[in-house]
Amino acid sequence: MNPENVFEKWFGLTGKTALITGSGGALGGVMARALARVGADIVLLDRKPERAAQMAAEIRAMGRRVLAVHADVLDRDALQRDRDIVAAAFGTLDILINAAGGNVPAATVPDDANLFGVPLEALRTAFDLNLFGTILPTQVYGELMAAQKQGCIVNISSMAARRPLTRVVAYGAAKAAVENFTRWLAVEMARKHGAGIRVNAIAPGFFIGEQNRRLLLNEDGSLTARGEKIIAHTPMGRFGQADELESTLIWLCGDGARFVTGVTVEVDGGFNAYSGV
Length: 277
Fold this sequence. Notes:
Structural class: alpha/beta
Largest sheet: 7 strands, parallel
Order of helices and strands: HEHEHEHEHEHHEHHHE
Shape: globular
Number of strands: 7
CATH architecture of the largest domain: 3-Layer(aba) Sandwich
Helix content: 40-55%
Number of helices: 10
Strand order of the largest sheet: 3-2-1-4-5-6-7
Strand content: 5-15%
Oligomer: single chain
């Protein structure tokens, strides 16, 4: 078997349809492009239509079929409406990437404050976005996979799920719950709906994005105090680059990982392995 055939067998996604929630964000966009490059047709789901439309143009230019749909991941009715649109356009769904998420500034606990005055509604907003923003799309789109007894779901965790980080109390708790949900769902889907349905997660380390840029970098590009702490506890001594998530995602979605389910893969430069001594 030549190298091209080996790649296509284990990692190629030609003929597959993948839906990415939060596809207009930096992380979701990277994942959408990566799956398109290895042959998948793409459904872009985002609460901001203009962001999904822009990404759709990029994917279409790559020669892939693409559909942009508009929904908030916490709106079941909108998700179900879009599911009917996806089913009509592609007939099925093979891959679901739950990339929507993020933190809420009001739900953080700065160094000069404490937990006691943080508004419950802010904490609930951050928690709901990350946990229920993963569960609801899974309920809606996972039903398609259950019907066909085939499918792959990839959730997005965080370093905050493994090692509680200062400030991000609700975000960290929600991501820890996402990892527990990932393991639970892997068992649930395989036992009740067929071993052809796999559920895994990726836990990115520290990548510079829109939400964390000001926390990690000063305006001149130098590290903030928090950024310095993170780099000091990352054995590779740097932040991650967005394309370093791609190969892990492609592996989890392809047949090369067909006996892998219920795991969370860390892409973190060694951050979680390092005790600091």
